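LAB NOTEBOOK - FOLDING QUEUE
OPERATOR: T.R.
BATCH SIZE: 2
PURPOSE: Compare the predicted structure-token outputs for two unrelated chains run back to back under identical settings.
PRIORITY: normal
REVIEWER: second-year student, initials M.K.

ITEM 1
FIELD SEQUENCE / FIELD STRUCTURE:
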Amino acid sequence: MTRKLVIVLANANPYSDEAIGAPIFQASVAAAMGYQVEVVCTGASAVILKNGVAASVHVKTAEARSIYDFIQEAHAAGARFHCFSTGLDACDMCKNDLIVECSGVIGAAHFIEEIMSDDCRVLTY
């Protein structure tokens, strides 16, 4: 049975290293552990998937790596990133604004189907 983890970034401040760093790191760890991981960004948090935004946020002032570096690491480990359709509207973005690591835009039906499966766990930030 496939084990799935969906991490929802809905209320996490995308410009706060503390709020956005931990869920991205957890996505990377879970993917490395063999979980099927999906990170869904919605509301104001969706802006983290906009080109250039994650690259400007650092976990610590002295940390050379940006949140974008952590997104790339999680993606390389197998985590998939999605923008919720309402997140595009909330952040005044279009699909062309999204980073290449974003697997696409999802809507409510896909989201509900994913989280209602028996093998899925959901973390919300």
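ITEM 2
FIELD SEQUENCE / FIELD STRUCTURE:
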Amino acid sequence: MTIHLFAMTDEVDSAGYFVLEKHHRIKILMHGVQSSSLPATYAGDCLDSLTFVQAGEYLEVEFASHMGQDGTIVCRSVEIAGIVPCDSKGAALAPN
């Protein structure tokens, strides 16, 4: 999965929205997936949180959604496979 992360500041722009900064795309690989309770059509979301819980020899990756798509993936291991700075739309930024 790829997740677009950002930091929300306490500043508000002229349209009344909080200013977001430090955008990054994080690529996460889940190995040895045993089960998933995510919706079959799960393709995008606005997550409230992503939680990793050790459950015996497995990890439970819990997706808490702002869009009613909560679910859990049970797997053997999780790997952070990449972190890429990006713009507010998720497009990778060119290296300096």
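REVIEWER COMMENT (ITEM 2): The chain has a mean pLDDT of 93.
FOLLOW-UP: none requested
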